[in-house]
Write a structure and sequence with these properties.
By secondary structure, the chain is of the alpha+beta class. The chain is 36% helix and 15% strand. Bound molecules: adenosine-5'-diphosphate.
């Protein structure tokens, strides 16, 4: 009984102060949901962990929390509040709506040197700060760098970080992180210096930014380790001499010959076009007290400024800390430093806001960010399930507000899926790798120069890189042939497998109103449609030039390409909970995680994808135009989870496919989704 009580108190505390929305990501330990802090109205990310599931990894979470409490930097994701119960831990974090840097890279195929430099300087800034605080991150990769609303990077996931007692110069022993980014000394199980290992990972990351694939890659771990320990990789020909040099200096097998972060701060490549070293000091130092935020809180809590300051200065990472930091964040973004007039920081659930929460009213974000109460939701255990939509599969979609449940949910399980690790062992994967391998060999023979300086042992074997699938128009043709079986009659296929999208009557007039609003939206840019057809692809490539000649001449791109200016105006859509109310697909703005097609019929696109998923051993559940997909490994363990959503773009008026990885290795996900979309030939 006491356990249950504590449990309820924890959940109550969360719901007293936050509204909890959909899952926006999941990692090795956690599920992350979008939330809104009621008192300030600010969006937050809520990282939810079940202690039972964490098992021996529980100390890692403690490490992460302690590290994040000690870090406050413009390029490190901010921790606002921690709620711990006997069974769960909730971390309330700064929300980064721009998604993972990983998705951004793959959407653009690769980044230009100029754009890479912008991001890389931010990574150097974050790492210099993190190291200055005595921490090594040890899991640096593009999945752990998120993009905020201003298109700046924020470092996340400090679960593997280390703070050696004697300082960062002391050696560490634990081998951790993601193999492809791990330094040779880590792989060899040697004692290593955390900051040196981080620089290696930064080198791998820099390579991934500039090239769109990994310098060391192999499905077989042992082969991958050998490659890393040899430290030789190919430099594609589009890399400038300066880029080749800095990569080489960072990916030195001997850690003592590697650049340090300090050296990176004013490295010629890093400084180029800026003429100034990287600014790494925190613009928001820990412990800083902002008078405006204190005043607002004091008025709201009916306390003196002195006692409010004293309360905030306890830095307990409770609701007081969260309120203060979120007010500060509002101020820094030029928003009014205002709280709701009710005593939002009081401990009892006295305010109407609190009462509203207890009755589980759900405040939905509309696309223009106005909040509209549209329904009531039982949140009892929705956010503690291991993977909500997997349990949904078994139990039907629950936890949806009334009025949104009128869906036909379909679960399709491919026959072999439980026995296979969908991407590492399927024939498709093998085929893809072989095709890529050959293509890569052809391309590399003419395009690469060897990274000789870095070679410890001369590499003889042929490297197999898991490159994106259809790099060339020829491969697209091949993929188009695969598509023979695809039913193209709208709805025919959907009906056949009971998957017709939602047929709930839309609210009268809302569509035209929305359309009008969007038409007026001056932010929209022109988008080059990149279809998965050879002709379209090459045309688009010509138009999507980045000033990087190598890029233009290469084969096709994987994902829908957006015109050059788009990255300037990437505005992530506020998730709309109204999608279930619509008869058709959601209408969204172009985002980099949306693949554009050349088609105008969403049902046709949906049907094409639906017919491909079983072929790729992907299980899915369908809800309207959203497909919640997963692959399973041995013993039915979910190895990968992602969403594909067929949606309508407005300018141009074509169908797009929004994709979001929820779980699993990012590069395997990339290959799988590319495979699905290119085979669908949409
Ligand atoms: P884990 O510690 O289990 O690996 P992460 O902290 O890496 O979990 O989070 C998992 C995923 O959730 C991330 O890759 C990202 O997609 C999403 N995510 C995490 N934190 C945030 C955030 N602050 N804002 C937006 N999305 C986030």
């Amino acid at each position: 009984m006491p356990v249950e009580r504590t449990e309820n108190r924890g959940a109550d505390e969360l719901h007293r102060y936050y509204e909890v929305y959909e899952t926006i990501g999941s990692g090795g330990f956690a599920k992350v949901k979008l939330g809104r802090h009621i008192a300030t109205g600010e969006k937050v990310a809520i990282k939810i962990m079940n202690k039972k599931d964490l098992g021996d990894d529980l100390p890692r979470v403690k490490v992460e929390i302690e590290a994040m409490k000690n870090l406050s930097h413009q390029h490190v994701c901010r921790l606002y509040q921690v709620i711990e119960t006997s069974t769960q831990i909730f971390m309330v974090l700064e929300y980064c709506p721009g998604g993972e840097l990983f998705d951004y890279i793959i959407a653009k195929d690769r980044l230009s040197e100029e754009e890479t430099r912008v991001f890389f300087r931010q990574i150097v800034s974050a790492m210099a700060y993190v190291h200055s605080q005595g921490y090594a991150h040890r899991d640096l990769k593009p999945e752990n760098l998120l993009i905020d609303e201003d298109h700046n990077l924020k470092l996340i996931d400090f679960g593997l970080c280390a703070k050696p007692k004697g300082g960062l110069g002391y050696e560490l022993m634990t081998c951790c992180g993601s193999p492809a980014y791990a330094a040779p000394e880590l792989i060899q199980g040697k004692a290593y210096i955390g900051s040196e290992a981080d620089v290696w990972s930064m080198g791998v990351l820099l390579f991934a930014l500039l090239c769109g694939y990994l310098p060391f890659d192999d499905d077989n771990c042992m082969v991958l380790y050998r490659k890393i320990m040899r430290g030789n990789y190919d430099n594609p020909r589009w890399l400038s001499p300066g880029s080749i040099l800095i990569l080489n200096q960072m990916m030195q097998v001997d850690p003592k010959r590697r650049l340090s972060v300090r050296q990176l701060l004013d490295h010629p490549w890093v400084v180029k076009d800026y003429n100034s070293p990287v600014e790494w000091h925190s613009r928001q130092p820990l412990g800083h007290i902002d008078e405006d935020s204190i005043t607002e809180m004091a008025v709201n809590m009916k306390r003196s400024r002195e006692s409010t300051t004293a309360l905030v200065k306890e830095w307990r990472y409770d609701h007081t800390t969260a309120t203060y930091l979120l007010l500060l964040s509002k101020k820094q973004r030029g928003k009014p430093v205002r709280l709701h007039p009710e005593p939002a920081v009081c401990e009892d659930s006295c305010s109407p806001l609190h009462r509203g929460l207890q009755s589980r009213d759900i405040l939905h974000f509309s696309e223009d960010e106005d909040a509209v109460i549209v329904g009531s939701l039982d949140l009892s255990s929705e956010y503690i399930d291991d993977c909500p939509w997997i349990s949904v599969t078994q139990q039907g979609f629950r936890g949806q507000p009334d009025g949104l449940t009128n869906n036909k949910n379909v679960r399709v399980t491919s026959p072999s899926v439980d026995k296979r690790c969908a991407y590492t062992t399927t024939p498709d994967r093998g085929r893809a790798t072989t095709q890529n391998h050959q293509k890569r060999k052809d391309r590399d023979q003419e395009q690469t120069s060897e990274n000789k300086e870095n070679i410890v042992v001369q590499e003889k074997e042929v490297e197999i890189f898991a490159l994106p699938l259809p790099r060339t128009p020829a491969s697209s043709k091949k993929n188009a042939r695969h598509n023979k079986n695809v039913l193209t009659t709208p709805n025919q296929n959907a009906n056949a497998i009971n998957s017709k999208p939602n047929a709930v009557t839309p609210k009268g007039g809302s569509a035209s109103k929305e359309h009008k609003k969007r038409t007026e939206n001056k932010e929209l840019v022109n988008i080059e449609v990149l279809a998965f057809s050879p002709e379209r692809r090459s045309r688009s490539l010509d138009m999507a030039g980045t000033g990087d000649s190598g890029k233009k001449k290469r084969g096709g791109k994987m994902f829908g390409s957006l015109e050059r200016g788009l990255d300037k105006v990437i505005t992530m859509l506020t998730p709309s909970k109204r999608r279930g109310l619509r008869d058709g697909p959601r209408k969204i703005k172009a985002q980099y995680n949306v693949t554009l097609t050349s088609q105008t019929n969403p049902d046709q696109v949906l049907n094409q994808i639906l017919s491909i998923l079983p072929e790729k051993n992907v299980d899915f559940t369908q809800k309207g135009y959203t497909l919640k997909c997963q692959t399973c490994g041995d013993f039915g363990k979910v190895t990968m989870a992602f969403e594909l959503e067929v949606c309508m773009l407005q300018r141009p008026e074509v169908v797009g496919v929004r994709r979001q990885r929820l779980k699993g290795d990012a590069w395997v996900y990339k290959h799988l989704v590319e495979d699905i979309l290119s085979t669908s030939s949409i």
